[in-house]
Automatic annotation (TrEMBL):
Domain D-isomer specific 2-hydroxyacid dehydrogenase NAD-binding intervals: 109-282
Domain D-isomer specific 2-hydroxyacid dehydrogenase catalytic: 7-307
Keywords: NAD, NADP, Oxidoreductase
Name of this protein: Hydroxyacid dehydrogenase
Superkingdom of origin organism: Bacteria
Species annotation: Phyllobacterium zundukense
InterPro entries (alphabetical): D-isomer_2-hydroxyacid_DH, D-isomer_2_OHA_DH_cat_dom, D-isomer_DH_NAD-bd, NAD(P)-bd_dom_sf
Gene3D superfamilies listed in its UniProt record: NAD(P)-binding Rossmann-like Domain
Length: 307
């Protein structure tokens, strides 16, 4: 039986690529020396494409694929996918929600604990021999009983909220509209929520609609005792203001898994003990990435099976 052609737009994890190659006639566009020439010659063959949130799919690429019916993306974010344009063209866009909720939420909690309890700074304190020399590290901060504000309360945000309750935190949230199915305190005013909270966790989609929503005013309202955690997208925060306020002490601490210009991180953050940095590892566990890969495959299979 002839395999359905599948265009892979960018690098994917080896396990996923292997599973796709078992089922489809895979062509790796990212390995073509003349990608445009390849598309001009072969674009009409591809009813399906696979991509990721890192590679994305923009309108100009969609226009080069006249037969495209479905794109299956590895990742939950859609800010790198031109979903509206794809829908206008009748192209189905599928991603991998839900399977990454728990581990991404765990990263948020891990960063919150790592930053407030000075885990990384104290690890360095021991390794540098300072404890052995008789020095004493400063006291850290606890989170029990503290108010933690979630900027976003979707699938992952809701899981984070449940985990925060287990740590004895008082959960509040900011979204465009108040939800009627939760009892957490709702704030329509993000600055007001920041002012009332010990920590803010950003877990909302990227894109134009949320760019810079965590503004300088929000960060200043969080204050010198406050903690900011970002596992959303780097674009949701005013990164210049974030760095300046962390340097000046006007913002207390931050745990950052995402940045505006990944993998480039503002170098000023490297020397700050009040910041914990991660290389966009929110869902990066063996178990979750395998589940995400399986969802990419099943999205394609279900489409071609008419499900």
């Amino acid at each position: 039986m002839t395999k359905q052609p599948l265009l892979v737009l960018g690098p994917l994890m080896p396990y996923l690529l292997e599973e796709l190659e078992k089922r489809y006639a895979v062509e790796k566009l990212y390995e073509e020396k003349d990608a445009l020439g390849f598309l001009q010659a072969h674009a009409g063959r591809f009813r399906a494409a696979a991509t990721s949130t890192f590679t994305g799919l923009k309108a100009d690429m969609i226009d080069l694929l006249p037969a495209l019916e479905i794109v299956s993306s590895f990742g939950v974010g859609t800010d790198s996918l031109d979903v509206a344009y794809a829908n206008k063209k009748g192209i189905k866009v599928a991603n991998t929600p839900d399977v990454l909720n728990e581990d991404t939420a765990n990263m948020a909690i891990s960063l919150l604990l790592a930053v407030t309890r000075d885990i990384v700074a104290n690890d360095r304190f021991v390794r540098e021999g300072r404890w052995a020399r008789g020095e004493t590290p400063p006291l850290a901060q606890g989170i029990e009983g503290k108010k933690v504000g979630l900027v976003g309360l979707g699938r992952i945000g809701s899981v984070i909220a449940g985990k925060l309750l287990a740590f004895g935190c008082d959960v509040s949230y900011h979204t465009r509209n108040k939800r009627g199915d939760v009892s957490y305190t709702y704030y329509a005013d993000l600055v007001a929520m920041a002012r009332d909270c010990a920590a803010l966790i950003a877990i909302l989609p990227g894109g134009d609609a949320t760019q810079g929503i965590i503004s300088r005013d929000v960060l200043k309202a969080l204050g010198p005792q406050g903690t900011f955690i970002n596992i959303a997208r780097g674009t949701v925060v005013d990164e210049v203001a974030l760095v300046e306020l962390l340097q000046s002490g006007e913002l207390g601490r931050a745990g950052l898994d995402v940045f505006v210009d990944e993998p480039n991180v503002p170098e000023a953050l490297y020397t700050l003990d009040n910041v914990v940095l991660q290389p966009h590892m929110g869902s990066a566990t063996v178990e979750t990435r395998k589940a995400m890969a399986d969802r990419v495959v099943s999205n394609l299979e279900n489409y071609f099976a008419g499900k």
